[in-house]
Amino acid sequence: MSLKISILKIYHDHAEVIRYLIAGGYNTVFGFLAFAGLYLLLEPQLHYLVIAAIAQILAITNAFLVYRYFVFKSEGNLIHEYLKIYVVYGVTFVLSIVMLALLVELLGMHPIVAQFFIIVVTVIVSYFGNSRFTFNSKSND
């Protein structure tokens, strides 16, 4: 079996996960640039936490559109799915805060190292939350 055929088989067998990882990389960069750009534009008028909240809404909306049309190719109810992605992101946010406190305070892990492990866990939780809840056509009926 040639390398090209092997790569195509891997992509075919895991296309959704591969698209999710590509989208995640893009979404991470988009979220950072949204915050940085808004901060540079709005910092004289708005507190950085307000800017972060605005950037978060933009980043989640962007992620929603990328996941809906590129990753999961959903045809479910747009508004229903959009609201559900906030549930998934709410769960991952709470999970990441709890894990960060546990890893740093109880296990003595450095916050940056802890955050690396948290990202791995939240990416997995987010994938299953979005694939099985947000963009699951059975749960969108």
The low-confidence parts are: none
Kindly provide the radius of gyration, computed on alpha-carbon positions and rounded to a whole number of angstroms.
17 Å
Give the beta-strand count.
0
Residue share in β-strands:
under 5%
Q: Any idea what the shape is?
A: globular
The domain count comes to 2
| Secondary structure category | mainly alpha
Helix content, binned percent: over 70%
How would you characterize the largest beta sheet? none
How far apart lie the N and C ends? 43 Å
What order do the helices and strands follow?
HHHHH
Quaternary assembly: single chain
Can you give a write-up of this model?
This protein is mainly alpha-helical and 141 residues long. The chain has two domains: 1-73, no CATH class; 76-141, no CATH class. Helix content is 82%, strand content 0%. It is built from five helices and no strands. Helix 4 runs antiparallel to helix 5. It is globular, with a radius of gyration of 17 Å. The relative contact order is 0.11.
Short synopsis of the structure:
The protein is mainly alpha-helical and 141 residues long.
List the helices and strands and how they pair.
Blueprint: H1 3-13, H2 15-42, H3 48-71, H4 78-106, H5 111-134
Please tag this protein with its features.
mainly alpha, globular
